[in-house]
Automatic annotation (TrEMBL):
Taxonomy, superkingdom: Bacteria
Organism: Polymorphospora rubra
Residues covered by the GSCFA domain: 41-309
Name of a matching Pfam family: GSCFA
Disordered: annotated segments: 318-341
Name of protein: GSCFA domain-containing protein
Lineage, broadest ranks: Bacteria, Bacillati, Actinomycetota, Actinomycetes, Micromonosporales
Length: 354
């Protein structure tokens, strides 16, 4: 006898991956903790994370959208202002550093810089420049709106049962003066780029690990019963400032994020990892869950990911019920529901001279 003789079929590549039809591959996630349907669930992270909250709500779970839209906005206006996308109006949070930053401002002893970008008489928040597309009439109003969001984070974290956070990038731009991290490069979505002030960085494993550990610790200090479920976005980098090829830069970024998420999940009972990245980008799926740009995940792909998620919560196989009719049904048939429109970093493709 040897240890491999008693392993189940899911432990072997041939029986778990190579032989089954790709849509029948299941048993990919065994949750470490239960998520009660009545427990408030918060979502935050990269643009892929915006699919998770509405899916939870549709499934009958208690997804908590803390900042609700004012009455009278159209569906397009709500979408443009990032209502209904995440639990908070922080906009996309791509890096562990920016998650730690928001939680430190809301729950810790750090204070956000009182700096706002002015364009054509309107003021924009550098740390969520796309959330209010028309800006604010004054810096005071922009600051007041940020305080509303920070208060919402404090309240929601204190009441939540689970925080689902989707890691997206390791690349980021930092303010040399304050040390704060921007969600996107100044001068792209908003603002003006200043080479003397704005510094590029590509976070390493130790740096991401430190920031994510600190973020989890801040949240748990505010709410000791909070569980954290980590995922990694399958959406590749729109562009890289490292000088590397976009493919290898994406591989580095996702590898670091996946490794950090796995490490924290191994170290803490209150941290788990859900494999949305593997479900979309894994070998057996042959990129069928991407739009033709090989970046935007199709609605069928999002549905497939969430079906595995709910199957795991219910401790059942992600079987044939509700699955696409076949591989052809999983392929893109048109545009997705918003696509890159809500991904701040997608604006970088505008600067592609190729």
């Amino acid at each position: 006898m040897n240890p491999y003789q008693s392993l189940p079929p899911r432990s072997f590549w041939r029986t778990a991956v190579a032989e089954p039809d790709m849509l029948d591959i299941g048993d990919l996630w065994t949750p470490k903790f239960a998520v009660d349907p009545d427990d408030p669930v918060l979502t935050a992270g990269s643009c892929f994370a915006r699919h998770i909250g509405p899916a939870l709500l549709e499934y009958g779970m208690n997804w908590r959208e803390v900042e609700l839209p004012p009455p009278g906005l159209t569906a397009a206006e709500r979408l443009a202002r990032h209502y209904g996308q995440f639990s908070f109006r922080t906009g996309n949070i791509y890096t562990a550093a920016t998650l730690r930053q928001w939680l430190a401002w809301a729950l810790g002893d750090e204070t956000a810089p009182e700096e706002f970008w002015c364009e054509n008489g309107r003021f924009f928040d550098p740390y969520r420049p796309a959330v209010e597309p028309d800006g604010y009439p004054s810096a005071e109003e922009a600051s007041a709106a940020r305080r509303v969001t920070l208060a919402a984070i404090r309240t929601a974290i204190g009441e939540a049962g689970c925080l689902v956070f989707t890691l997206g990038l390791t690349e980021a731009w930092r303010d040399r003066r304050t040390g704060t991290v921007y969600p996107v490069c100044p001068g792209t979505v908003r603002g003006t780029f200043d080479a003397d002030r704005h510094a590029f960085g590509n976070f390493t494993f130790p740096e991401v690990y430190a920031d994510l550990s600190a973020a989890v610790a801040l949240a748990r200090a505010a709410n000791p019963r909070l569980n954290v479920l980590l995922t990694v976005s399958p959406v590749p980098l729109t562009a890289t400032a490292t000088g590397e090829h976009a493919l290898t830069a994406t591989t580095y970024s996702k590898s670091v994020l996946r490794a950090v998420a796995g490490q924290l999940a191994r170290e803490h009972d209150h941290v788990d990892y859900f494999p949305s990245y593997e479900i979309v980008t894994g070998f057996p799926y042959r990129a069928v869950f991407f739009e033709p740009n090989l970046r935007t995940v199709t609605p069928a792909g999002v549905d497939f990911v969430m079906r595995h998620f709910f199957a795991g919560l219910e401790r059942r196989p992600a079987g044939l019920e509700g699955r696409p009719a076949g591989p052809g049904a999983a392929r893109p048939t048109g545009t997705s529901d918003g696509g890159d429109q809500l991904c701040d970093d997608a604006v970088l493709d505008y600067y592609n001279a190729g």
